């Protein structure tokens, strides 16, 4: 996963608002993640974390505001987000997204899943890339088993492998440790640490403190769709994250 | 408020004048007799209903591209008013047909197509009740509305070509062949009156829907606080 | 080019998942079989009667079966939020629809071809001499059903009462397909069979209009 071939990219939220009917899911979201940062989102259920991540992924269209992806080197070259996720967004942002659901097919094997998405993303040398990823997430021996037969932890591994297929420069993770056993969490923390240390930008929502929250270099707390805290100071990051479920 | 009353009064007068025209100005049709006078209500309602559905279609397209709730409000107003006029067509048709042909319903091309049209837009309104989230409801019903309206010429075409086994109705055989000039004038005047009525109803419905939309928004905001 | 490669990759997935479980195909075949048998009780299926009522009953059975078969089309993608994964991965969302509607056309055509001999035997109608033309009508009709059905199943998957909603939205929309394909089939099963080109052309026009509409508006159907 350390192979270069991606350009460090940040994310800039400019006055993002999202309303569902009259209900404001996100209000006046304005912050910038610099390339290589690892940001943890905290907040109660329904505070807007998932919506924020899905907007960043290009899955949800914001009601107003702009989302751009500035590149690390010098001038901001980010283009504004088009209506839906298109080639332009992927080229600029190439975010890998791990959602709450696994986003893979239960009726296909692990390998078939990854090959399908690799083909859709037009990954060069798809078969090779998939084999390498299967080794990395520790599922190579089970590659021919249907995902349906997997435990929650193994499914999460497939989900993460899917998100990493195109060597994204940005990772968006929605409560990535859900359903993982302690070993799984440790594995995920190690994987994310490696990704962070190779310059990937990470934005993830978390519930409570864990080995994964230790990776965060910055914490943002949402409440009712508003940013109520944002800090890069180590101690404050911890306190925001431990406070998350209060 | 005063303006609305005035508009309503004008529409009322227009519709009254159209009824007067249908009963006293238009000549009595030779073979069918006085019952044929329902034709002015029947046909003008059919045309007006189609106009309303066309307005709905335009509002649907504008909603998909602009995403302003106003277009959604207009589309539901137009669909409901259009449905009312199509219902008038479907009811007045049998009333006219029974004394003339001795049966309540003939599977005549126009009447059948109108029935399918009525079903399509009834489903349009039904769909709206089954999607909770307002933006999604607006988008999905707009998309279905577009598909439904694209279907209209196909429905008319297919039924006209293949399903008309009965003799063509006397008055509307071909494209209104053999219609007395006075009859034409009364028909067009009735149509004009119906269009005015449509505009009046649609406006009232729109105002109501806009109020409902705003109320929904305020209520959500109150809940969020 | 990317549209073509995405579509074939997705089509492969659709076919593979279906042939692994075969749930759609088996239930649809049994459903059509049941309708064909039950329908025979509503009239006396002699040679003459069958040729008058047979085509209509056949197409009604296909239409109802399709409105049930198309149900899981997008519902399946919701289980694990795989629809989002597809939206993130394909460069043209039309590929998602194209793959699904081709798969659905193939499934429908498969069940129809399977049911044809059963229909021919039970209703005593000779079909062999017009087999080619019949397949043409089956193809064009099923394509129209699949185009409209795939689009609407994306809508119904996100609504309440979705099991009832899809047939309600789909069947009135498919009236022209029902009328035209029944008419052409009536001609083909006639004592002196003939192919009504007007009907074939009409089905083609329906398919083209709705395929274009889906191409123009499909991406909005996938929004969340």
TL;DR of this structure?
Chain A has helices spanning 49-57, 87-92, 110-120, 126-136, 152-164, 182-197, 234-242, and strands spanning 11-20, 23-33, 38-42, 64-68, 95-98, 170-174, 201-205, 218-223, 226-231. Chain A has 246 residues and is an alpha/beta fold. The model of chain A is unreliable at 74-93 (pLDDT under 50).
Descriptors:
heterotrimer, B: 225 residues, 0% strand, C: 224 residues, mainly alpha, 10 helices
The Rg value of chain B, from CA coordinates, equals 20 Å
What average pLDDT do the residues of chain C reach?
A: 92
Strand content of chain B: under 5%
Alpha-carbon distance between the termini of chain C? 27 Å
If you average the pLDDT of chain B, what whole number results? 87
Order of helices and strands of chain B: HHHHHH
Query: Helix and strand succession of chain C?
Result: HHHHHHHHHH
Q: Biggest sheet of chain B, open or closed, and with what strands and sense?
A: none
Low-confidence stretches of chain C: none
Number of helices of chain C: 10
Helix content of chain B: over 70%
- Largest interface, Cβ cutoff 8 Å: A-C, 31 and 29 residues
Strand content of chain C: under 5%
Oligomer: heterotrimer
Task: Tell me what the structure shows.
- The complex is a heterotrimer of chains A (246), B (225) and C (224).
- Chain A is 30% helix and 23% strand.
- By secondary structure, chain A is an alpha/beta fold.
- Chain A has a 6-stranded mixed beta sheet, sandwiched between helices. A 3-stranded antiparallel beta sheet of chain A has the order 2-1-4, covered by helices on one side.
- Chain A starts with 10 loop residues before the first strand and ends with a helix.
- In chain A, 47% of the residues are buried.
- Chain B is mainly α and 225 residues long.
- In chain B, 80% of the residues lie in helices and 0% in strands.
- Chain B is built from 6 helices and no strands.
- Chain B has helices at residues 2-25, 39-66, 69-101, 109-130, 134-162, 181-224.
- Chain B starts with a helix and ends with a helix.
- The mean pLDDT of chain B is 87.
- Chain C is globular and about 55 Å long.
- Classes of the chains: A alpha/beta (246), B mainly alpha (225), C mainly alpha (224).
- Chains in contact: A-B, A-C, B-C.
- The interface between A and C is medium-sized, with 31 and 29 residues.
